[in-house]
Amino acid sequence: MTTPIEHFHPFVxxxxxxxxxxxLSRADAPKFLLxxxxxxxxxxxxxxxxxxxxxxxxxxxVTGRTHAPAVSAQLPELAAADLVLEPxxxxxxxxxxxxxxxxxxxxxxxxxxxxxxxxxxxxxxxxQEVVREAVAAAASGRIVTIGIPPTxxxxxxxxxxxxxxxxxxxxxxxxQVEEFVEKPDExxxxxxxxxxxxxxxxGMFVAxxxxxxxxxxxSEPELHAGLAEIADAWGTLAQDEVVxxxxxxxxxTAIDYxxxxxxxxxxxxxxxxxxxxxxxxxxxxxxxxxxxxxxAGDSDVAVLGENTRVLADASSGVVVSDTGRLVALIGVExxxxxxxxxxxxxxxxxxxxxxxxxxxxxxxSGDTDVL
Amino acid sequence: MTTPIEHFHPFVxxxxxxxxxxxLSRADAPKFLLxxxxxxxxxxxxxxxxxxxxxxxxxxxVTGRTHAPAVSAQLPELAAADLVLEPxxxxxxxxxxxxxxxxxxxxxxxxxxxxxxxxxxxxxxxxQEVVREAVAAAASGRIVTIGIPPTxxxxxxxxxxxxxxxxxxxxxxxxQVEEFVEKPDExxxxxxxxxxxxxxxxGMFVAxxxxxxxxxxxSEPELHAGLAEIADAWGTLAQDEVVxxxxxxxxxTAIDYxxxxxxxxxxxxxxxxxxxxxxxxxxxxxxxxxxxxxxAGDSDVAVLGENTRVLADASSGVVVSDTGRLVALIGVExxxxxxxxxxxxxxxxxxxxxxxxxxxxxxxSGDTDVL
Lengths: 371, 371
Known about the structure:
Two copies of one chain form a homodimer. By secondary structure, chain A is of the alpha/beta class. The first copy, chain A, has two domains: 8-279, Spore Coat Polysaccharide Biosynthesis Protein SpsA, Chain A (Alpha-Beta Complex), CATH 3.90.550; 292-370, no CATH class. Chain A has helices at 43-51, 68-74, 91-106, 124-138, 186-195, 209-219, 221-233, 239-246, 255-265, 284-290, 355-365; strands at residues 8-14, 60-64, 83-86, 111-114, 120-122, 143-148, 159-165, 175-181, 198-208, 269-273, 277-279, 300-304, 309-313, 316-321, 326-330, 335-339, 343-348. In chain A, strands 6-9-7-8-10 form a five-stranded mixed β-barrel, surrounded by four helices. A four-stranded mixed beta sheet of chain A has the order 12-14-16-17, with helices on one face. A two-stranded antiparallel sheet of chain A has the order 5-11. In chain A, helix 1 links the parallel strand 1 and strand 2. Chain A binds chain B through residues 23, 309, 311, 313-314, 325-332, 335, 337, 339, 341-348, 350-351, 354-355, 357-358, 361-362, 365, 367, 370, and chain B through 23, 309, 311, 313-314, 325-332, 335, 337, 339, 341-348, 350-351, 354-355, 357-358, 361-362, 365, 367, 370.
């Protein structure tokens, strides 16, 4: 059994539709609310369940106002005080900064952890041990990111360049972070992977709330001041008025620019490498990876969806269906079929990344009823 | 305007589900009842409309009992006496033989014409002129088939080998038929097409009813006797009793074996070449050919179905939908997507012929609810 970690306060920024997973993901059914692994749990629910044992059951969720009912329904044990609602999307620095301020008010020694709501991680025990080490490293006064050892020269992620071991007894695998680097081209990515000093930046980090906010104040003073005004009013009769007045004017920026990169330049960032498998379920090629191929079938077709009947002849790929219809595939290789009541997508694993372009194209053409 | 041809009695054997067009075609919605060209008319309706002007408006339809309501609804002007219902499928010789007997009783000088219910022919005027010539040739005491000049070395059709011109004044293009040949392999088909003596056998023919039945009596005496017993009872109080007693025991055979081939061997068959375009809509590759590509789209996707929204990105092929759903195609070439309320097919134009195997596989697995 995992024991709770003192002063550790995890939170989950749950935003982003995940439009590369359209038409499965929708504005009102974003990726984090979906079960994409056939496990019976949504990605958010699984994220919550991985974190709760580390913090005595309390996990804060920061999400959009429109998702409050669905989040509450999926997490019935979530305390009202742990459901932080954004009136509108303001990128990650605002959401994370507000969570840090609220948790710092709850616990002046708070070590916070930020974990995306829509990643798949296995096994939970390995994840928890890595977080435990990251918290220990953070207690030494650092922002500690969890790096994912790369399994391919991916060009869709930022990378973390690590340096020397920190030599911390409670965090033996923690390394100094030299720098965060942007998404590379493929040649650069190959060099990163071959070199061994680079891990993928999955956006997971653990840090003393006070340290993180000090960096935020330095690099984004306007954002910090606005969030502080909101945090001061939080839980008072003035909350709604202040949020509605201040939030819309907050600068939109990512936590990477506002905190991670300047903190790394200041020598304040460490990294603990992951010992678990990690997938950001970035597109339908990932859905194929994460779902078992029907062992009874004579073809390599992964199926996601209950009561889905698939007839596959000389075909491979993935079928996602929530309509109960029979899906017949004949002579189609590496196909992706996503079957929903009002929209049908047919593409290939190779083109799975282009689904986002289709969503943008639907936006432009005014077909927003299916988004 | 086309004037009616004296003693000419066309009929339409309307049978066959067209399982290569599943899931569009179903047991209760066979191919001939469908609009496969986006014209607004079913194939049966269009066939009827091409024939009716040649016979003063009377066209006989021979179909399965279960299709009677749909056929009557599509052909409201069809006289009850012209709707001949088979209690069960017995292949083409029984259906055609019965139609000939009933028409011979109506007109002892009947020249009948048999035309499939599920072919696409353009333009109607050219078709009518060819039929007129075929009737003239048939009046000389021959079974006259209409040959389709081949546009490719197709291996899915039988071929007709023609010989010398008949030299008939009223049928200047009519040629003697030397033989009917079975579906060839591709090499043989290439030789047929290159040689110039061969046309496709589309199963359309015109003949004196008495001559056709004489051949049937010679080659299939049992079938002929059974049909004669049914025809004698037709229109009397005994009709149902006799049909239900005799029909189930009739031999199952194709008109090609029962009449066309022996008649050709006897020198009784002629051929008039078609001057119209012809398509048997044999599979979804044909649906692609017969339906206009959306001129507004930037991709080569043909769409069949009302109110179908298709978003195509770097894709080509055909979408058939009657669900009103948005269909998004991304990076799929020569794709075939058939979208119905209870079944979805994804294949390619190349594999379109294999749809029949999928239907057989569904029969074996007991998934008959979608057939």
